[in-house]
Structure formats: structure tokens, C-alpha cells
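In this section we walk through a basic example: taking a raw amino acid sequence and producing a predicted 3D structure, encoded as C-alpha cells. The instruction is simple. Fold the sequence below.
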Amino acid sequence: MDTLAPMLLRPIPKGRAWGGSSFVQHGKFPGLVAGNAPIGESWELADLPGNDPSACSQIEGGTHAGSSLREALRADERRIMGRAALSEHARFPLLVKFLDAAANLSVQVHPSPAFAAANPAAHLKTETWFVLQAAPDARIWRGVRQGVSREAFAQHLRDGKDIVPLLMELQVREGDCIEMPSGLCHALGAGITVAEIQTPSDTTFRVFDWNRHDPARQLHVDEALACIAFGNEQALASIPVIHASQAPAIVTRQFRTTQLSRTPHYRIERLEALERAELPVVTHDRPSCWMVLSGSVTIAGPTPLKADAWRTLLIPAAAEGLIANFDAGTVLLRVSVPDPMDRWIA
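The resulting C-alpha cell sequence is shown next.
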């Protein structure tokens, strides 16, 4: 294949009731989005089904600049995807975001495999959070406490009781990596900014919304109860919260590469440049997404491209052999799309 340069993606701001000010403070967006809603999400790489232009990334620089990601895939699928497959809807198989929570997100769940199989409009959503910033007392809720049955949970909801005591509460800090498979009840707490990597679905069932009483944020109690995992079926012991400092790492003179998460849908690594350095781009004939968290990275080649902090690059499969130049202290998340063999062994 001919070499294909990376693509700088234009972030898509999303106003949310729980949004904060981190994006504006970091200069990612000039201010609030339409309707004066604070920006809660920045969709960095998106290609969801349907024709909503705000659900598909635009390419701002590099290869296919001026096109949407969907248009680029139609024109150049082989060089972009390599051995990796598109989603079942013929879209890019990841949705990648930054989230900035000034207030608690709703207690929610994404469709379980059984629910998705019975409801074609509902799509599985496995996601991973990597904590970028956290207030001293920041916490999340992840899973239902052992001993709480589906019936007891449902009775709490019917009686209007507080369900938060029924959930597992965890304090989190910068550097924590948290996996949430579909079917796991969860909520992101106030004072946390995360990078979120997920399968390309926006199907969310809210169980509790902290008494906001916002008619635009309806609850989906029946659907949620059909999806939430309870007891041992949550398998939380197999997906512990892991801190980047405790995760497996490979350290050279120039780079520290930390393995954060591996699911059947994606692999996440944290790459840190310990000094100013260059690195050949290795793709293994699969695309990856580089979320720059600090510093900057420049990729040389036919279309040179630079990404600073809070920007995201799509590295196509055909970018093999290009040279990436890192400023000292640059940190990025490298999110790789698996090929069929990776999916089988993950």
C-alpha cells in the first residue's frame, strides 16, 4: 500500500447538564455551546450510524482534510483500516471522547448482550475511562453491591428510595484506568475529567439522575433493569481499577509505554516521551488513535502534521514507517483497533 499520512480530527463539543469548564480553560473550545450548556463531552473521533453531522468527525488537517471521516473511509478504506474491520454498520469501530464532569453524571447502564440481541436498535457499549484530572474527594460508582438482587433494586426504584447506597462507590485519582463492560451499572462523579474510549454506540439507559427533573433527560428504568448485571455476573474481580503507575510498562531511555487496557474491541497504551525523541510509526496494518494529553507530537511525511495537548490524531494502517517527533514530556494515549486474531485472543 502507498503510505498514508495521519489525520487531525476536529473535536465536536457536546453541551451537557453536568458539564464543566476544563475544555474552555485549556483553550480547546472558545466558550459554551449553543443554549449556554457547559461542554461536558468533546467527541474526538466519531462515526456513528445515521446522518447526524454532529455524530461524525471532520478531518481538519492531513490526509483527506476537508472531508468527514465517513467520506474518507468510503474513498480509502483499505489504507485507513488495513486488516481491521469496520463496525457492523460499516462505520469506524471506536468512539473516542474527553469528558469533563463538574457534576455527577446519571446512574446508567448500557445494553447487555441479551438485550441488544433482542432489540436491534440498542447497541452494546463497552467503555474505558482514563482519569486525567480528579478533585481530592472525587468518586465514581461502578457495579451493584454484592447481596443486592434485581428485585430489591427494582423495589427501591418503585418506592422512590435512594439507590446510590446500593452501588459500589470508589474514590479515584489521576492515572486510574477503569473498564465498564456493557451491562455494568455506573456513574462518573463530579470533579473528574477523563478520556473515554468505547465501542461506537450512544445507547444509554438512565436509572437515576440525581433529582435534576430535566424533561430532556428522561429515565429508562424498565430498559435499565433488563440490562443491569447483579452479583457475580458483574465479574468485577476480572476488571479491577488499575493505576498507570502499577500497570505493566516497558521503559527505554526515551519512552515509557504502559499497557492500560485490553478488550476485544480496543487496546489502550499510555506513551510518555522522557526526552525529546523521534519514533517510527508502527501500525501492524491497523489504525490507531493518538489522544495527546500533554506536550506535542509532529509526524513528518508527505503531509506533516502537528498535534498539541487535547488534540487527537487518527493514524491509518498505511502510515507505517513515518516518523513521529515528540517534545520532552509529551504524553499520549495510543488506542489501537484490533484485527480478527486480536479479537479472538483478547
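Looking at the output, two observations stand out. The longest strand covers residues 12-20. The radius of gyration is 20 Å. In the next section we compare this with other chains.
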